[in-house]
Structure formats: C-alpha cells, structure tokens
Amino acid sequence: MILRVGSRGSRLALTQSNHVAERLRRPGIETALMPITTAGDRDRKSPFGEIGARGVFVKELEEALLAGRIDAAVHSAKDMTSTDTDGLVVGAYLLREDPRDALCGVPELRSGMRIGTASARRRSQLLAIDPTLRIEPLRGNIDTRLNKRTERGLDAIVLAACGLDRLGLGAEIGHRFDPAELLPEAGQGALAIQVRTGEEHLVAHVDDLETRRRVEAERACIAAVGGGCLAPVAAFHDGVRLQALIADEDGAWVERRTGDDPGALGAALAAFAAGR
Questions:
Q1: pTM
Q2: pLDDT category, 133, cuts 50, 70, 90?
Q3: Given the DSSP bridges, would you call strands 88-93 and 72-76 parallel, antiparallel or unpaired?
Q4: CATH code: domain of residue 162
C-alpha cells in the first residue's frame, strides 16, 4: 500500500512531512508526499484576520483528506483548529519538540526595540512585559522572516523554536522564552497526523501518548475559551499542570491561570474576559 501524505509546500513543512513519512513506513506500507498550497501560503502579506481565522494553513489539506485525494495530512499542531473537523481525527502526534518561542537577533529584550511578529498572542505578552516595545507585523515562511529582519532593520523577530531547530537554524536563536515569560500556542512543538475517522490504524503506530495527552488538553482549553487565531489566548501543559491565558491585544492586562480541567479553565478565562 502507498500512503499518500499531504503537506504544505514550504521548506519547513516539507522537512517535517518527510520526517513523518519516514516514521510511517513499515513492511507493506510505502509513502508518497503530496504538497498542497493553503490559503495561508497563497497570501503571505495580509493579516490572518483578513484571510481567515485559525486554520488558514489547514483547510485545503482537510478538504483533500475528505475528498480522498490523500490518506493523511501533516500539520503543525498549533495551526489546527481547537476542535476536530467532522469526519477527520488526529490519528497520531509525534513526540513533541521544543514548544518555546524564540527571540532571534538579540540575546534579550531591551526597551524600545522593534520586534516583528504576526502573532496576536506574542504581541500581547511582549507588550505586557515591556510596553515600550514596538511590535510590527511580519508574515512569511521562516527564511523570509529572517531575511526581513535585516531588510526592515528590525531589532529582533519572534518565531517558534521548534521550526528553527528542525531546519538547522538554531544558531539564529538569541533567547528561548520560558513559558513563564511567553506562554506558547496550544500544540506548539508537536506534529499532528490527521486522517479520516475510522482510519486511525494507518498512523497509530507512531502516536506518542504523552504528547497526545498534553496537546489535547491544550486544544480543549482553547476550545472552551472560544478564541480564534487572532485572539490573544494561549495554553500549555508542561506534563504536571495546564496553564492558560487570555490577554488584551495591546498587553494592558494578561490573565493567566492553571487548572486540571481544560474545559473549566477555558470557561473561567472566557468569563474573566467577558467581565472586563
């Protein structure tokens, strides 16, 4: 059998998907990589809110899965919606890599710095740390954003550490933020393999159960908050406790809480924000 594995076409996505494809191969199962362009890939300039909310890097892959054009789709778990699409399920999560955010260009934050990021989550938390920071929108793949830092004279940019590590660009990182400084996106650092419901057996042999436990708790918490891709929300399970936050987009306030019940934790944060 040839398992058709769908992937975005960026260098990072193909690197990740090749790794997944290698893991999926076993006696009687070969893999074929199928690059697919998503809405987020076609438009690399507009803010995410103008091209769709969370899921702009996922929708076309899901459509290909539902149509039977591919048998599995590889996603960065942080790009997925917080609830599963009807007819589809995450059949496996690979062992999570570094979930932290990375500051590229300098070893530490300094007052008044110009920092590039397209993430509302990062923007709100950075401004909460230091309101004098100037946060500028920055879209594109990793190589593009690294180049734009120099072209636009930015002091630094913030990216996911795992993506830089996977591309052998760890030397670009000046500082890895502790989750106590910047709480990561739900699912950050984990690769998710999505399949049609009932076909989990195709990928179940590579599922890391501990990663699944943590990431599913994070996704459930964000689902309970009701935040989309642009909402300043975050959730991270460190193996002991689940932490989550909701914030003002300009960092005027950040409400961070911990709990054991993802649904209750997310609902409490949503209620807090609604009451402000």
A1: 0.91
A2: very high
A3: unpaired
A4: 3.40.190.10
